[in-house]
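Lab notebook, bench 4. The sequencing result for the construct came back, and we need a structural model before the next group meeting so we can plan mutations. Quick request posted to the team channel:

Model the 3D structure of this chain.
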Amino acid sequence: MANQVLKLYGNVYITEDIIHNKIFMKGLEQTGMIKVDSIDEIPDGSVVMFSAHGVSPQIIDKAEKKELTIIEATCPIVKSIQNEVKKEAEAGKKIIIIGNRAHAEIVALLGCANNKNVFVVYNEMDIDLLPDFSNDEVVYFTQTTLDCSAVEDVINKLKAKISNINSNTQNNVCYATRERQEAVRRIASSVDLLIVVGSAHSSNAKRLSEVALNSGAKKSILIESKDELIESDFDGVQSIAITSAASTPDELVNELVEFLREKFDLIVEDFKIQDDSGK
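Done. Here's the predicted structure in token form:
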């Protein structure tokens, strides 16, 4: 999408990386993508592209006042959660968001609630610090890129503390993230090395590596490309599993597979998870 937008408009401004990959972002910058720290730095009448994490209504308002052409690349799931948070906030409900307060997705959701009557929790310790909601209507939402099992633990803790808490959307972890995490859980203990292709700045990439280690992987490493691998990574390794963050371009994974083919005598198998129906 980013390349198409650049071809159509030429210079396009962003306030956050469209994709968590230094190589691809450098390529986009060479063809007209301009990153700034704030929307205030973008010249009036220019083109701005917002990332999959979305932005707050306040940022949209600023963009419109500057007469910017807005290109929304917001994930549909994130957009749906934003709309729900705004609706519940306008209804006067107290809102609890499970996630990392510093993450762009959470910052945008806080804005959707006008930063009023909204609380962010990341772990059980945060939940212990929440006020009494016994006389309030309370609803919770979750960041889309978290560890599914960890989210469920936090949700259960919330429900134990706040009996009147509700959710219209339950666990909001996106399908692509959820599927990758489940595949990693199932295969991690059966390989010597699990490689995650993604950025250290990507929440779901970091979660995949953590899930691998928590699921019995002997070793898990997170790389942006094959060029980051070193010889010692393969010490004692006879079997390797490869996965990638939801936003990682397929060609980076393919390059890694080809690199390993050239380096080792590989037998490559695709691993796909099945649901309870066997599909």
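The radius of gyration is 21 Å.
Will bring this to the meeting.
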